[in-house]
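MODEL INPUT / OUTPUT PAIR
PAIR INDEX: 1
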Amino acid sequence: MLIAGLIAACGLAATACKAPEEPLRVGVLAWPPYDLAYLALEEDLLDPEDFRLVGFQTPSELVRSFRYGLVDVMFITSHFAVSTLNEVGDTRIIYFIDVSLGGDALLARPGVDAEDLKGARIGVEVAPLGMYTLVRALDELGLERDEVEIVNIDTAGQFNAWSDREIDAVVTYEPTRSQLLDQGAIELFNSKSIPYEILDVVVVNERTIDAHRTALVKLVRGLDRAISMYRSDPAATIRTMARRQAISAEHFSLAMAGVEVFDLTANLDMMTGDTRKLLDALEKQCRIMTEAGMLVSAPDLTPMIESSIVEQAARQ
């Protein structure tokens, strides 16, 4: 009896002393729809004991941290997800956050038109999203890459490079886009011209799905509830989210007008219904990136879309 009691006591002590599970590390960038994750935390739609949001200044930094296991989840564009798939074979998209319909753009100085861009210094982060947007912008404007001078400037440095007149034009996205338009920049191209070619997604690897499935379901449900809150009272939620970006609510509202946000129902339809539209969009991205030298070869995209998290979230 004494031995049995000691064993039971030790078991209880071990349970009591078990270290709590570390929160899921979610890497995010300064892109207005990603602030829905912060909104979900602030409004108790996500438990801060389950999630830690980690801010990054550039997509390249975020992808590097994901590759080395410093974050478990990425909020990133599909171009980076596809590029990562070639390096981290078990990369999976578990949720589609939004599609850019104007939020990504090529801006130039006043009085500059497409013809004037020949020989111009165009600032761009030389990474999958920046280069993809530049390639598509030049295509639309009838220009070749060798007709412009590409200046590698990461997202965080673009506003200062513009102010210091180091560049004549810039490929950028919100909120920098709105800030530069306020400085007098003119827009020569934006992502409204290339619908479904710039998608924002939630990316994980298979190990994270296996180890943190319950937390990922909570994350998806929290995002969905934040979207519902945004849609039911956009003015109030925009004021809350704009404070994080240090921009006016008006600018934040304009930035959100340049995207279509996807809720859980939309994700379920896209990922479990006719997935051809998504695969076509991703395959087109791969084709353009391969032709432009951003990818050595197009990866197999079929296993990349992982619908089980969305399906489980929808059942709860």
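PAIR INDEX: 2
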Amino acid sequence: MNVLVIVEHDRGTLSPATLEAVAAARQIGSVHAATMGTAADALVEQLAAHGVSVVHQVHHDLLGDYGPEAWGEAAAQLISSLSPDAVVATGTDRGNEVLAHIGAILDAPMVANCTEIEAADGPWRLVRTRWGGSLLERCELTATIKLLTVAHHAVEASEAPASARTVGFSPVLDPSLARSIVVDRVERAAGVTLATAPVVIGGGRGVGSPEGFAPLEELAGLLGGVVGCSRAVTNNGWRNHTDQVGQTGTRIAPDIYFACGISGAIQHWVGAMASKKILAINTDSEANMVTRADYAVIGDLHKVVPAIVAEVRRRRP
């Protein structure tokens, strides 16, 4: 089977989720990849290192930056010319958005956020996340070309070195597609982000105030991490929405997540559940986050967090 992966990138910077999608595609068959815009031409080596055999470099003036309509139309034209058995994209906001456009253009069904893929000659059997990740659904996909996205963090990216060749493709795009293209940006400060940090120190309503985050910031600084928060915190105006972990915020996957004074509502859990380990600090031993966590400290976070900070400092040379 031939599988086409839609490469997610931001002006030439490859999204880690793309390599997860490539790893999932390798389990199905031979992997081709489609890169949008000249900025992505330099990604061939990275893609080849993960098993991509052919990279289709799609070029057009409207593909200079991300635009869901332009990307979707360009990809749909490429798919029509190649007729792959399946098209796989990332289970991110961009990946799901672009594949939804492709599905609409090709009048084909798509299945979003798959965690398991069983390819077959007949209907494909899939498992996908629903309701913000709170449940798993088994389904079957029947279509000439299968369209699906891979849930973020559901498959681990792994190298499988291949020798990739490149093929150019020039779509015909109507100028009206420029109505939904990124035209301006606000750059983040340099450093790790909430989505990529190996350590996240999260604070909830139990932190009590904006000033209460100072010990969490100190701990994050010592451990090379960043501070996140629950929706209750942003609703109270204590921190910016960009710090929010959850279904309507950022989904994280750190090596460890410190959940301090967070009750663990399902919306927050959806954003944190990909964490490799979770340490909950809470006075309520029955809180959802405590019962779901790998480790828990039942106590006042205003005492526990400073104690952790002091111990980390003591052990540092």
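PAIR 2 NOTE: The longest helix spans residues 68-82.
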